[in-house]
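Bug: token stream looks shifted between consecutive jobs. Job 1:
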Amino acid sequence: MQLHVSPSMRSLTISSNNGFIDLMKIKVAARHISYRTLFHTILILAFLLPFVFILTAIVTLEGVNKCSSFDCLGRRLGPRLLGRVDDSGQRLVKDFYKILNQVNAEEIPDGIKLPDSFNQLVSEMKNNQYDAKTFALMLRAMMEKLEREIRESKFSELMNKHFAASSIPKGLYCLSLRLTDEYSSNAHARRQLPSPELLPVLSNNSYHHFILSTDNILAASVVVNSAVQSSLRPEKIVFHIITDKKTYAGMHAWFALNPVSPAIVEVKGVHQFDWLTRENVPVLEAVENHHGIRNYYHGNHLAGANLSNTTPRTFASKLQARSPKYISLLNHLRIYLPELFPNLDKVVFLDDDVVIQRDLSPLWEIDLWGKVNGAVETCKGEDEWVMSKHFRNYFNFSHPLIAKHLDPDECAWAYGMNIFDLRTWRKTNIRETYHYWLKENLKSNLTMWKLGTLPPALIAFKGHIHPIDPSWHMLGLGYQTKTNIEKAKRAAVIHYNGQSKPWLQIGFEHLRPFWTKIHVLLFLQGGSWLILLVFGIRCENT
């Protein structure tokens, strides 16, 4: 057999030598690669190579650069190219969540010894070879302990602030003592206020009559002087200051020695009003002397309080509601203005924690349209502390009597600066309504409302309120540090309602200058020894 391959490599011949000619010819076809096939191949490679490059770069950033061979790189890239990714990290996270759920469902053992810091926890974990569950349990116990300590600290802070707000600063106490001593020894401090020839002005309705009920001498001075300094017609101003018996001598001495001419000031003690008898104010007598009420306001504020289910803000509101001032007769006197000032037709009542920054004479020109009380409504603002108050913020609507007679969405209003039409007031039963609801709240053991004199006034003046522009009366300077300073500068009256009064150390420093600037003016006007007394002179020998 012979094998013959042609030179062109295109045919193969096989022949036999056995006498017979066996011939087999095999043709091999030529292999051609077309240009179209080559173009498609190059196009596919051009499309795939960028993806391979990007994937290689990602793997390199994740640590492939640590590989020292193509084999290592292949082991990393292979599963990715085939769509299989290592999910060990996801499994670890799932296992971690499972452990956390288990730890959250278990009780923390009693008497467990907890490390004092996270570093100590890590150190103990390394030394004692804690497993993940033990580590999570220890971490949870530490966090819960920290949360308890923070809550206790917050409640302690609120209690201390409550005591600070309810106390009398030493400077004010000394001022009252010194002025009382001055009243007894100095004839000028006892001179009649106002002088006899000005007595008819006290009932002259052509003047602008302000009423202030307070036992804080310095605060009263700020209110009176700020009103006079801001007025365009100070000679038309008459201030009627009502105080208690123990403060009367000091209050009288202050304004006798520091006149605010050309304005007129009258100082009267509650004991000098013939109308304020037990027969006329029986409910207030009960409020001041009721043992349960006095214990509520003066007793242990933590007794019976479940702090574990109480938020700090709720606790702060409850503390504020237990301020002793709310059972003071001075705080309730505003409901008796028509009887205490029978000859006056229209007055502006001011709290002692306000500062007047603008002329208030236009208030007497406001038409109340037959209403009794011109007040700023407190339900149309954005802040949650002061200007977003409705009846539901003051009353317990789970009480059937409250739910029957009141609307929780009704807008509240503010005390602090109010225009009272006393002539219209005398035609109403506001005082009787006020007494009725005070009695009902006493019968219910204070379950209808907790906070002071405003809730019964909200009911008594229901239907008798005329809203005035909020720019007349800006509230909240004793509550919140985020008070808008520019708005405060523009307000006619700024009100430090809340615990952080400007004469207390807990007052907000950036809001205090609105109040203290009046002291500077008093100092420049000649009351230097009194101002120095408040801010520095000691009173051990008084």
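Job 2, same session, no restart:
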Amino acid sequence: MAAGMDFSSHRSLLIIIFGFLGLFSFTVEAATKKYQFDIQVKNVSRLCHAKPIVTVNGRFPGPTIYVREGDRVQVNVTNHAKYNMSIHWHGIKQYRNGWADGPAYITQCPIQTGSSYTYDFNVTGQRGTLWWHAHILWLRATVYGAIVIMPKPGTPFPFPQPAREFEILLGEWWHNDVEAVETQGNQMGLPPNMSDAHTINGKPGPLFPCSEKHTYAMEVEQGKSYLLRIINAALDDELFFAIAGHNMTVVEVDAVYTKPFTTQTIIIAPGQTTNVLVKANQVAGRYFMATRTFMDAPIPVDNKSATAIFQYKGIPNTVLPFPPSLPAANDTPFALSYNNKIRSLNSPQYPANVPLEVDRNLFYTIGLAQNSCPTCVNGTRLLASLNNVSFVMPQTALLQAHYFNIKGVYRTDFPDKPSTTFNYTGAPLTANLGTSTGTRISKVPFNSTVELVLQDTNLLTVESHPFHLHGYNFFVVGTGIGNFDPSKDPAKYNLVDPIERNTVGVPTGGWTAIRFRADNPGVWFMHCHLELHTGWGLKTAFLVEDGPGQEQSVVPPPKDLPTC
């Protein structure tokens, strides 16, 4: 600044500068982020085979959505593919705005070939890593991407600032067209073929044939820390993830800050996200990052490891990477111990507002069954159910039926508890308990508090199930192995700092208890995030009624809402 500038000129300049900064700050905080998603088919080669896949903008995985807490997001989706399409913004709460949530036939009819729909939503009170994916058929096998929500300007992370961030998306790959795989399984009445490889950022890594150029690598510098935003986008596999020779510090899951803890391996279920800090503090070299299935039930899975490279700057690609060390595929004690370490940060700035009183207690059993199917291979078809009800997808979207009072689309008599009690996790039960089918959902009063216990059963087999609730986060207040005991287990709940998330694993042969406040009116899908089980009917929905206030009811639908 010139030495001769007088005070009034100095003050005027400061007013102009701060006025501009204030305008800039407001612009940033109230920004509208616009994206164009073109759903298009593209030929992609993996594992020595080329095949056409459905993509967004020709990219696999799809583009990352970058926003700040408080931003408005508008994503125009134009469908150029032969399949109907819908996109779900996994973990975005969509307050009063189920029209932008995305599950086909739940909150919207799908976007048909040649049509467009704009998802228009606000990101309120959330920051961290979420993701988006197709929510119809098995199309999310290739139609998925990350959502990165930065804190508001001037708000730091509650952990050391990393030098750089990387998104790590874990997925699956099939040689064949995934829709053909799904259709064949349905026609045969059997589980479809498992995937041929896992992927890290769409690439299986050098342990697979023809994959030298299909290997993801991230470059790091000695002594610096990095934030990895890890997403399990696999259709059916819970996964381990580790970096050879390096510890990871977990700082966030499902866009909720955690009490930091250090681990050599994380475990992450389909639908979940985990943010970890990694310090490049080992001997400079190349280190494998690896992912492989966790499965502690007698069920065949794709157990091949996908790998990527954690590469120190200046190290040539000819150096062989250090191998990773992952737990045994069925290491139940590790999985239980790891998940028990995940606690909400519960700081004054980010409190864990756990509902301490419960208005509605729900108990849902998870079961598999075989129903008659004369055209199927064994004369039976596999079904999955909650409380012995296998959900049937409607032909009209549930939210539209609710909002416009269209009769005959659904019933609100989903049972709060199973009609038959039994030793849920005892000896395997092959008898069909008379599984019913229907479009049955639960009606919940606005602002009521709900506790839901999800109980795995040994109907055909026990298995771990990751459950996702749309429109909400919930607190995971308890979990255990065996049968839930309502007289003893609630006394062991963590009501101080339980983790808050949108997708939770029910352990094999065990139970998980969650709590949430039903303060988001609309119709919200709840389902197993194993695509196989969702297709078999392991799903339902909550109809949360409008509240009495002006800002407590579902907003009107957009004009371009697709019709069925």
